[in-house]
Amino acid sequence: MLKGVFAAVLTPMRADLAVDRAAFARHCRRLLDEGCHGLGIFGTTGEANSLSVAERVAAWEALVEDGIPAEKLLPGTGACALPDAVTLTREALAVGAPGVLALPPFYYKHVGDDGLFAFFAELIERVGDDRLRLFLYHIPPMAQVGFSAELIGRLLEAFPGIVVGTKDSSGDAARIEQVCRSFPHLTVFAGSERFLLDTLRWGGDGCISATCNVTAAQSRRVYELWAAGDPSADAEQAALTETRGFLEGFPPIPGLKALMRERTGEEGWAHVRPPLVALDEDSRAALLGSAPV
Amino acid sequence: MLKGVFAAVLTPMRADLAVDRAAFARHCRRLLDEGCHGLGIFGTTGEANSLSVAERVAAWEALVEDGIPAEKLLPGTGACALPDAVTLTREALAVGAPGVLALPPFYYKHVGDDGLFAFFAELIERVGDDRLRLFLYHIPPMAQVGFSAELIGRLLEAFPGIVVGTKDSSGDAARIEQVCRSFPHLTVFAGSERFLLDTLRWGGDGCISATCNVTAAQSRRVYELWAAGDPSADAEQAALTETRGFLEGFPPIPGLKALMRERTGEEGWAHVRPPLVALDEDSRAALLGSAPV
Q: Which residues of chain A does B111 touch, with a Cβ-Cβ cutoff of 8 Å?
């Protein structure tokens, strides 16, 4: 059910850095209209860890109130603190999300698989809800802590039907292929649409990507061509990979927000929470000069 | 006022992983009795980032109710999310703590000084309390994100009387010396008592250290010998550095908790929150065989 093209959704913010509720709902609606199968809200791109637990919960409740179907949402529920992860997971289930994307606890470094296994075992036990569908969010460039293939295997074996998927943002094609082939029943999303076609061919299921905030339609075309067995999928993937190249060399979240501001004219795209910093005028001009506006 | 020997206080926990209130107060009382000038609660050693904001606030309120003087507390108030850092800082001031120890936001990596400056500027503005005394918690091995000397200088200049100190857990003697000498009015705590005497001689002010949970008395002796200009300070420092060596090769928080359990017989030392893992029986035996019990 949860598969295909997902945007790692940007979170628009007002000048006071609160979530811009109206712009957020409009953006989610637009992404679905453009072709996203679903929405990965409040991941790295969504500045989730820069928002409090209460802010995240309020924002996704508002999204559903504002007409975004809960069944399209894959909320990020990762947190360093077990009680925060429990609260976020329960609230995501309460709002009707069909799955959650969970970071490992990311403060302590060089922790072993036993400790990470214990964290997720406690989380699943404390949430105590058979509806839980957990996607493991592997993003070592940011979290530093990640999911080894062995750990994924242990979690799948211990919690069948609960641990059901992963998002792999390692940026490492060989690793994504290994995970797809090692765990044929695991739902595997690549963390970038540049791996979309490969991931589907390796037996994976799609992508959850920051650049899908602006490449949703093109990413969806790759998916549909693959699903139809159309050989032009390769050419479309190559074009998609080229399209998303505009962001190379720019900080991705401020860069994508600058582009969304240009596209929509909405003020809600002007702001990022510190420690991120909005693009300066020169960078903005350079980005917009090469971007697929 | 805030200077000298501080333990980076361990947080005892019950079997359900809640903070063991009684054991926490007893431990803080014991550390003060053994010679700590103050208590760095809810830092890395205190598993702060494994606890929710509400748990941290409730625990330090309980400490003060249980008789630990608020003026001895330097609570950790670091968080990735600005609103969490604001809440923790306000609550620390409300309970009467004379200073707070603030991590940089640590999820996003490779952020620049401008973004970190913006984070602390927002924090100080939103807390909006002249009583605030902010200590910058530099611990790159864990947080990855840290405070450059340039950033410390910018913050000192922009917020004189508010940004007043740092804890340097770089483990790098040259860096600690540089910070001490570059900012003579900054209160500098080394992150380990092995740098205590050197730090004092470089113009710094003390240490905040995990191993001070068990070396408080000896660390205090080094401090007093230095304060008295007694040349035997060097020999005492050498002995202290040797004492704290027992933890080498063991995971520090589970190791120190195992030692505290042995010393006190209290159940509250048996537990760590995942992703940390308690020592297994062999490691425990090896540690206790070499520890200063």
A: 275-277
Own/partner pairs, B280-289, CB within 8 angstroms, 24+ separation: B283/B250, B283/B255, B283/B258, B284/B258, B286/B250, B287/B246, B287/B247, B287/B250, B287/B255, B287/B258, B287/B259, B288/B258, B288/B259, B288/B262
Model pTM greater than 0.95?
Answer: yes
CB B165, CB B188: distance < 8 Å: yes
More confident residue, A24 or B292: A24
Strands of the sheet with B4-8, listed across from one edge = B38-40, B4-8, B206-209, B187-190, B163-168, B134-138, B100-102
Q: In the predicted model, what is the mean pLDDT of residues A211-231?
A: 98
Q: Structure tokens of A96?
A: 């009707």
Residue A269, exposed/middle/buried by CB under 10 A (0-12, 13-18, 19+)? buried
A16 reaches B (C-beta below 8 A): no
By the 8 A CB rule, do A54 and A18 touch?
A: no
Q: Which amino acid is at A260?
A: M
| Residues B217, A142: Cα–Cα separation, whole Å | 40
Best residue in B13, B52, B272, B279 for a mutation probing chain A (most A CBs within 10 Å): B52
pLDDT digits (tens, 9 = 90+) for A100-132: 999 999 999 999 999 999 999 999 999 999 999
Q: How far is CA A266 from CA A13, A38, A257, A262, in A?
A: 10, 23, 10, 8
Cross-chain Cβ contact A105/B53 below 8 Å: no
Closest by Cβ to B51, choosing from A81, A111, A114 = A81
ipTM higher than threshold 0.95? yes
Ordered alpha helix ranges (H), B159-251: 173-182, 196-201, 212-227, 233-243
Is B276 within 8 Å of A111 when comparing Cβ atoms? yes
Residue B78: closest CA among chain A residues belongs to which residue? A107
| Per-residue model confidence (pLDDT) at position A1 | 78
Residue A250, chain B, CB below 8 Å: the answer is no
Q: Which residues in chain A (32-51) have CB-CB distances under 8 A to chain B?
A: 44, 49-51
- CB burial of residue B159 (10 Å; 0-12, 13-18, 19+): middle
Instruction: Give the single-character DSSP code of A76.
Output: B
Which of chain B's residues have a Cβ under 8 Å away from the Cβ of A142? 107-109
CA–CA distances in Å: residue B131 to residues B93, B185, B202: 7, 18, 28
- Of A158, A149, A211, nearest to A180 by C-alpha is A149
- Contact across the interface for B274 and A118, Cβ inside 8 Å: yes
Contacts of B81 in chain A (CB under 8 A): 49-52, 55, 273
Per the listing, tokens 């909006």 go with B128
Q: Which of A108, A137, A151 to mutate to test the interface with B (most CBs of B within 10 A)?
A: A108
